[in-house]
Design brief:
CATH architecture of the largest domain: Orthogonal Bundle
Number of domains: 2
Number of helices: 9
Helix content: over 70%
Largest sheet: none
CATH class of the largest domain: Mainly Alpha
Strand content: under 5%
Number of strands: 0
Order of helices and strands: HHHHHHHHH
Shape: elongated
Distance between the termini: 25 Å
Structural class: mainly alpha
Radius of gyration: 18 Å
C-alpha cells in the first residue's frame, strides 16, 4: 500500500481528515516520484542484463551450486534459480514504486522461507543470490538512485537471513 493509500485508510478508519504530518508524508512521497520511476524503469528495462550478471556473479562465487549435487545442478534447477532472480527483482521494483517495503513482504517474503526450506534450498545460498542481484542492479543506477534502491534489496536479504 502506498503512503497515500495508508493515510486515506487510517484517516477514514478514525473518521477524521488527514493530519498535517500525514499530508507532509504524502508531499515527500510525491517529491520522490520521478526518482522512483527512474529506478523502476532502469531495473525493468535491464532485467535480462541484471539477471545474467547476477547469475554470473553467483556461479563465480559459489561454483558448488552448479556442480553435481548442488541445488542449481541441472538445467531445470538452474532455470528455476534464474527465474527467482527475475521474481525478486520484480519485487524490488514494486517496493521502490510504492516507496514502501510492504509489497515485498506481503507478495514475496511471507512464505518464501518455508517454501525454500521445504524444497531443501539453503537460505544462505538465497541470501548470496540476492546480494549478487543487488550488486548487478545497483551498478546500473547513479549513486543517489542506488542509495534509494539498496534498502529494498537489503530488506529481502534480512528477511531470508
Amino acid at each position: 500500500m502506498t503512503v497515500v493509500s495508508k493515510v486515506i485508510v487510517q484517516a477514514d478508519d478514525e473518521l477524521r481528515y488527514p493530519s498535517s504530518g500525514e499530508l507532509e508524508s504524502i508531499k515527500n512521497f510525491l517529491k520522490t516520484g520521478e526518482q522512483r520511476m527512474r529506478i523502476v524503469t532502469t531495473l525493468t528495462e535491464n532485467e535480462k542484463k541484471i539477471v545474467q550478471e547476477a547469475t554470473k556473479q553467483l556461479w563465480q562465487k559459489r561454483p558448488d551450486f552448479i556442480a553435481p549435487g548442488g541445488n542449481a545442478y541441472g538445467r531445470k534447477e538452474r532455470a528455476q534459480c534464474i527465474r527467482d532472480f527475475g521474481w525478486y527483482l520484480r519485487l524490488v521494483t514494486y517496493g521502490v514504486l510504492a516507496g514502501d517495503k510492504e509489497p515485498i513482504d506481503t507478495i514475496g517474503i511471507v512464505g518464501a522461507r518455508e517454501m525454500y526450506n521445504s524444497l531443501g534450498v539453503p537460505l544462505p545460498g538465497m541470501v548470496e543470490a540476492i546480494k549478487c542481484l543487488k550488486t548487478a542492479s545497483l551498478q546500473l543506477l547513479n549513486a543517489e538512485d542506488a542509495q534509494e534502491a539498496a534498502p529494498y534489496f537489503d530488506f529481502i536479504i534480512q528477511s531470508l537471513s
